[in-house]
Amino acid sequence: MSSKLTEFGRMTRKLRVEHDEYLKDMAGHLGVTPAYLSAVERGQRNAPYEWVGLLQIAYGLTHDVAERLKQALAESRAYAKLDISHLSAGDRRFMELIAERLQSFDEEER
């Protein structure tokens, strides 16, 4: 996985600097360890969307800033987890084929 700072990571880091806080302070607001928050910022873990609301409350973010943070979070997500246990074996295979095919498209084809 990537160790490059994601857009969400850049935005959260900026929030910390603006509020004179450390990684551990923001991690405390989110109820996670600093190591977990760091991994999210670097694209090694996904953050839950609930974090946007927690950050909005903790830092008094405007609606517009929260929306930009939500967009950055969506773009920074390294993977998606879907519960497909209720699908038939054929439908699960179909989902796998779609995912494989999507990876073969370039940006214009998407």
UniProtKB/TrEMBL annotation:
Which CDD domains does UniProt cross-reference here? HTH_XRE
Q: Which InterPro entries match?
A: Cro/C1-type_HTH, Lambda_DNA-bd_dom_sf
Q: Which GO terms describe its molecular function?
A: DNA binding
Recorded hits in SUPFAM superfamilies, A to Z, give: lambda repressor-like DNA-binding domains
**Coiled coil located at which positions?**
none
Q: What's this protein's name? A: HTH cro/C1-type domain-containing protein
- Species: Mesobacillus boroniphilus JCM 21738
